[in-house]
Write a structure and sequence with these properties.
295 residues, alpha+beta, Alpha-Beta Plaits, two-stranded antiparallel ribbon, 13% strand, elongated, RBD_domain_sf
Length: 295
């Protein structure tokens, strides 16, 4: 009884795939046997989460081969688990996203942590990978954070291709979503062209959020209600910019009590789909940090 293996391969372009099929379809790996049969696959992309004997992504060298004795977990992207943490289990907070100096963010506290915290390990492993295009984020709330919400925050600073929660095996998060998500083709990436990138201002977190792409029928109360429904802090000040009579959307500013509140709201509500009665397509709420510190 003959046996065969089925393999899927992704090329850089359709043209390259066509050339490979034309050259290799019907060819024998060994003389008179192991004839290749090549067809076009239905999926347009392959989801490779590790480099091993069964799968390999040649564009992602950090998907390291699993070692024996390591169980099902692959080697961490930034090396082994850091040992030189401070007493609270983490290194110093990232200066880009400062947090209030209270006990809510310490590992020894029994309080519920915020949605996002921004500690970074102080290790030589981190420093040696400082130029990598892969960012490791720790201190995330296990029940409130997921791939989409991390994307909502990090997309302000560059295009996000993929996000995975360690360990590398894909699993279900507490909210029911997947621990892995590919964002390479999403329209919510904000640096996909030079013209689009020029409209973005790289701005560290502030108490004020700039909102835009909102339908004119949405009021201050509607936005406040949106915060309440998603269990995030409400804003304390609201300002809407004057729009042209022909404009189909409005924009404005929202001020919050703290940077932490603003970050939490942006993480949860950025790219929220606003649907209006009798509307054909939803409006995608866009949020970013404002250059203003107060209204």
């Amino acid at each position: 009884m003959s046996s065969f293996s089925l393999t899927a391969v992704t090329f850089e372009s359709i043209q390259n795939a066509q050339k490979a099929k034309a050259a290799l379809n019907g060819a024998d790996i060994y003389a008179g046997c192991c004839t290749l049969k090549i067809e076009y696959a239905r999926p347009s992309r392959l989801n490779v989460i590790r480099n091993d004997n069964d799968s390999w992504d040649y564009t992602k060298p950090f998907l390291l081969r699993r070692e024996r004795g390591k169980g099902r977990q692959r080697q961490a992207i930034l090396g082994e688990h850091p040992s030189s943490y401070s007493d609270n289990g983490y290194g110093s907070h990232c200066p880009l996203l400062p947090l209030p100096g209270n006990n809510r963010f310490k590992r020894g506290s029994h309080d519920v942590p915020e949605v996002v915290a921004y500690p970074l390990p102080q290790t030589s492993s981190y420093m040696s990978h400082a130029s990598s295009s892969v960012a490791m984020v720790s201190g995330l709330h296990p029940a409130k954070m997921n791939c989409t919400r991390i994307f909502n925050l990090f997309c302000l600073y560059g295009n996000i291709e993929k996000h995975a929660v360690i360990p590398s095996q894909v699993f279900e998060l507490e909210d029911g979503s997947s621990s892995y998500k590919d964002f390479a083709m999403t329209r919510n990436n904000r640096f996909t062209s030079a013209g689009q990138a020029s409209k973005n201002i790289i701005q560290p977190p502030s108490c004020v959020l700039h909102f835009y792409n909102v339908p004119p029928c949405i009021s201050e109360d509607d936005l406040q209600r949106l915060c309440t429904e998603h269990d995030v802090p409400g804003f304390i000040k609201y300002k809407v910019f004057d729009a042209k009579p022909s404009s189909k959307t409005i924009s404005g500013l929202l001020e919050f009590d703290s940077k932490t509140h603003a970050v939490e709201v942006l993480t949860v509500l950025n790219h929220y789909q606003i649907r209006i009665p009798n509307g054909s397509n939803p409006y995608t709420l866009k949020l970013c940090f404002s250059t203003s510190s107060h209204l």
